[in-house]
Amino acid sequence: MLKIEIRTATPKGCAFEAMEKLGKKAVIEVEGFSKDENSIRGLIRVKTSEVEELLKDLPNFCVSLKISKDSARLLLKEHPCLIAYPILSSGGIIVGLSYDENAITWSVICDEEDCTRLIKNLEELGVDFELIYKGRPEDEEEMTFREEEILRTALERGFFDYPKRIRLEELAELFNISPSTLSEILRRAQKKVLEKYFRERSNIFG
Predict the structure, then answer these.
(1) Higher-confidence position of 188 and 120
(2) Is the pLDDT score of 112 beyond 90?
(3) Pick from 5, 113, 130, 146: CA 20 to 30 A from residue 162's CA?
């Protein structure tokens, strides 16, 4: 099993293009993707202070459900996304995506054969992409320098305090990345800290 991360430009005419306009103000969570013969269906959750602006600019293949004043669920139906479709057609599973510097980073779980097929499919379609990470998911158990830096800064700046002394969007500004990217990095870092803590306690008492 592999985890790969592929960086691409935002596909034109895509629902993600509307979200890209919000830039660093949106946090995006993938809830699921599937495909049929020629298109994809997807369910994503978006958190942004400009949710009304997002909803009014969506293409007609999107169905939206406003959850609260700052979040909404979007159902992408029968959408021929130039990036998501070849990922799914290659056998990959999209587990996350984030915006950073006018591009999308797609997090995908697949095997070696799927990865080879995906790269070939993207090349044949003429998609400009960069493979920025490839490895086994379990290789991510050790915290990276970037994860530690962001987690430490979040702690020192009061992100985990109640009430928070710094918002996710403000923290993202410090690192010049989008809130969705920062949220994913923080989630991974916290997971690793918790896993290490409980693993060590299990070794002591177990």
Answers:
(1) 120
(2) yes
(3) 146
User: How high is the pLDDT of residue 77?
Assistant: 82
Tokens of 154: 């979040």
Rounded average pLDDT over 76-88: 85
Is the pLDDT assigned to residue 140 strictly greater than 60? no
Distance CA 49, CA 59 (A): 20
Report DSSP state, residue 161.
S
Average pLDDT of the residues of the chain? 83
Mean pLDDT, rounded, for 7-23? 69
Q: Which residues of 81-90 are buried (b: 16+ CB within 10 A; e: fewer)?
A: bbbbbbbbeb
Tokens standing for 109?
């779980």
Q: What is the 3-state secondary structure (H, E, C) of the chain?
A: CEEEEEEEECCCCCHHHHHHCCHHHEEEEEEEEEECCCCEEEEEEEEECCHHHHHHCCCCCEEEEEEECCEEEEEEEEECCCCHHHHHHCCCEEEEEEECCCEEEEEEEECHHHHHHHHHHHHHCCCCEEEEEEECHHHHHCCCHHHHHHHHHHHHCCCCCCCCCCCHHHHHHHHCCCHHHHHHHHHHHHHHHHHHHHHHHHHHHC
